[in-house]
Amino acid sequence: MFICYIMSVKNQISGVVEMRKYLRQNKVMLLVPLLFLAVFTFGAGTYAAATEDPMQQLQKRVDEVLRILQSGELKRPENKEERKKLILNAVTDMFDFREMAKSSLAQSWNTLTPEEQDTFVGLFSRLIEQRYIGKIDSYTDQKVVYKKQLVKGDNAMIYTDVVDKDVEIPIIYRLQENKGKWLIYDVKIENVSLIVNYRRDFDSIIRKEQFAGLVEKITKQLEKPETSN
Amino acid sequence: MIRSFVILAGFIVLLLFMATQTWAGADADMAAGSEPAVSSPGTEPAGGNGAGHDPLQEDNWEDDNWEDEWEDADTIADPLEPINRFFFHFNDKLYYWVLKPVANVYSRIFTEDFQVVIRNFFDNLRSPARAINSLLQGNVGDSSKEMARFVLNSTVGIIGVGDFAGDVLGLHPANEDFGQTLAYYGAGGGFYINWPFLGPSNFRDSLGILGDSYVHPLILLNADREVIIGAWTFEKLNYTALTLVDYELFTQTALDPYTAVKDAYQQYRNGLIKNR
Fold it and tell me: Residue B250 domain-assigned?
């Protein structure tokens, strides 16, 4: 322990010295980003006053889901249906399913009639539920660490880590603002984008069996019994 | 055997020496480059400045990401699809008929804490490969961190069962392998290969697995083939026990599980390669 302490102090000291050297050598270089930073914070300040921060919104909703999951009352067998409904409501409130369904179909989306589009959005959101509600039920005591957010106009990326069994799993959310509400339209888990993945999956089917085949496959998929844990 | 040990020891000393030179510099860079466009979250990341979270690097990487939102790399070539699908099916059955039932029993006997310890032990054995690959990709800082991890965790962390370096010193593993090194020097992935037992891979990463295996301590110590296969199986079983539902949930909610796994593999690898 003592050795570690010495090592960390030594590192900090040399870090400070290096930092000073760096500052001295790069005064002009530093001014430019500082200027940008000032402009950015000023601009963002006026914007953030109007609406809530996307990360705050996400965190609030995730906390709400965790509260439902941890509630001892709801864990009782007789409340099983109620619990599922509450989770589902809380989760679906976070996603922009229409946007997700559209992106997952790529160009094929535009070839559909409005009715077909609506049907597909419904099917797609149930497919997502099937994947994530199954996972959410296996929740035990994972911690969510909110690392940072990037906001660009009405788009935002939020970087989080889920700490599960001592391993950090990076999860990135992409959100879009819709009337003051930030909704998720893609989730990247360990670099694997949910939407890109579905896009490939759907594309391989559309190419062989057209849109009708895809609808049929999803319908069949949704009839499958839930995955048991 | 003794000679390879001496070479390894020399390498460790060299890297530890370089470590003292580079950590300080990396800290200064991080402090200077991380400010703009990042609003700090309420909670700090648990481990402090980890190897994988260099904000400077991540920011560049994000800028690319805003632009090519869905335009991912081309789909991976798959001339072996029929064979690959066969082995995908084979591995799937292996999972449901063998791995999962055994892992279930295993989980009932050994606690999760024990499983984490076993995972740490096997993970520690891959440290030398990660260190060498970080170095080959020109990242001396990560390489020395990884070597320090190996030395510390093998000793203070008791043959690697505890992650002393990560928990106490905040030295987190750099996820590098030879496949990524080849990609760093411009090698494309080549075609997709779904190996029996090993699972999804591609031509480049298969070479990578082969390359990395040469610096795995079990191989360096000239272990018997039975020991190597036994160790590998045990590692796989332990890993399955720790991640039991994940595979099922992913494959069962995909319409064409083979395509979904193939794409997930490609995205995952591309992410690792980008995030050097």
Answer: yes
Look at chain B and report how many structural domains it folds into.
Answer: 1
Higher-confidence residue: B28 or A33?
A: A33
Measure the CA dihedral B120/B122/B126/B127, to 10°. 30
pLDDT > 80? residue A3 = no
The whole domain housing B161 covers: 81-274
Q: Which of A11, A130, A199 comes nearest B27 by C-beta?
A: A11
Does some domain include residue B11? no
The answer to whether the beta carbons of residues B240 and B99 sit under 8 Å apart is yes
Q: Say if the Cβ atoms of B38 and A148 lie within 8 Å.
A: yes
CA–CA min distance B32, chain A (Å): 8
In total, the C-beta contacts within 8 angstroms joining chain A to chain B are: 147
Residue A117 CA to residue A130 CA, distance in Å, equals 20
Task: Tell me the percentage of chain A whose pLDDT exceeds 90.
Answer: 28
B44 DSSP 8-state letter:
P
Report CB contact under 8 Å: B32, A22. Answer: yes
pLDDT, position B276? 66
Interface pTM, i.e. ipTM:
0.71
Identify whether B204 is part of a domain: yes
B269 part of a folded domain: yes
Q: How far apart are CA B175 and CA B205, in angstroms?
A: 14
pLDDT in tens, A83-101: 888 888 888 888 999 999 9
Structure confidence at residue B182 (pLDDT):
94
